[in-house]
């Protein structure tokens, strides 16, 4: 059985509204900024950003003006996940959240700096 890890999606109303998708990996939260709300239908651009401490998974509140990422942060979804596979350019995982459930993939998208595609894997 695969180890159950945490994930969180923060709705971050900073200079631009976006969603921060975070997966527990290697003792930190690996993070991607997704410009549009994640869903089960559409592929979304996801820009990999700096890692965050695991404690950040529970953060919600307001980052003060003048600080990086200033704006309101809410927990949009969270839960557990299982990592199926992880390679340099492809990560496959199963999410168990309130909004996001099922098998998803992050696929490196070289046309954008630190770019990835986030999408739900269609079952055959």
- Overall mean pLDDT stands at 92
SS elements, strand count: 9
- Note the main sheet: 8 strands, antiparallel, barrel
Oligomer: single chain
What is the succession of H and E elements? Answer: EEEEEEEEE
Task: Describe the fold and architecture.
This protein has 124 residues and is an all-beta fold. It has strands spanning 4-13, 17-25, 28-34, 44-52, 61-63, 71-87, 90-97, 101-108, 115-120. It has an eight-stranded antiparallel beta barrel. Strand 7 (90-97) and strand 8 (101-108) form a beta hairpin.
Topology of this structure?
Elements: E1 4-13, E2 17-25, E3 28-34, E4 44-52, E5 61-63, E6 71-87, E7 90-97, E8 101-108, E9 115-120
Antiparallel strand pairs: 1-2, 1-6, 2-3, 3-4, 4-9, 5-6, 6-7, 7-8, 8-9
Descriptive tags:
mainly beta; eight-stranded antiparallel barrel; 9 strands; 0% helix
Question: What's a quick, concise take on this entry?
Answer:
The protein has strands at 4-13, 17-25, 28-34, 44-52, 61-63, 71-87, 90-97, 101-108, 115-120. It is mainly β.
